[in-house]
Amino acid sequence: MSVDPASPRPAAEPLLEVRELEVSFNTEEGTVQAVDGVSFELDAGEILAVVGESGCGKSVTAMTLMGLTRYPNARFGGTAHYKGTELLGASDQQLRAVRGAEIAMIFQDPMTSLNPVQRIGKQIIEQIQEHEGIPDQQARERTIELLDLVGIPRARERVDSYPFEFSGGMRQRVMIAMALSCNPSILIADEPTTALDVTIQAQILERIRDLREQTGAAVILVTHDLGVVADIADRIVVMYAGRIVERGSLDQIYYDPQHPYTWGLLGSITRVDRPRPERLPAIAGLPPSLADRPEGCHFRPRCPHEFAECVKTPPLEARGGQANHEDRCWLSPDEKRVKREVEPGEIGLGSKEGAAA
Amino acid sequence: MSVEATEPRDETTSTDRGTPLIEVEHLKVFFPVKQGLLIDREVARVHAVNDTTVSIPEGETLGLVGESGCGKTTMSRAIMRLIDSTDGAIRFRGEDITKAGRKAMEPVRREMQMVFQDPFASLNPRKRVTQIIGMPLRLHGVQRTEVDAKVRELLDRVGLHPEHLNRFPHEFSGGQRQRIGVARALALEPRLIVLDEPVSALDVSIQAQIINLLDDLQDDMRLTYLFVAHDLSVVRHVSDRIAVMYLGKLMEVSPAEELYTKPIHPYTSALLSAIPIPDPEENRRRERVVVSGEPPNPINPPPGCVFHPRCPRATEICREAEPPLARYPGGHLAACHHPLHVSAEEIKSATKDPTSPLSAGDDLPPASEADGAGPTA
Question: pTM for this structure?
Answer without folding.
Answer: 0.84
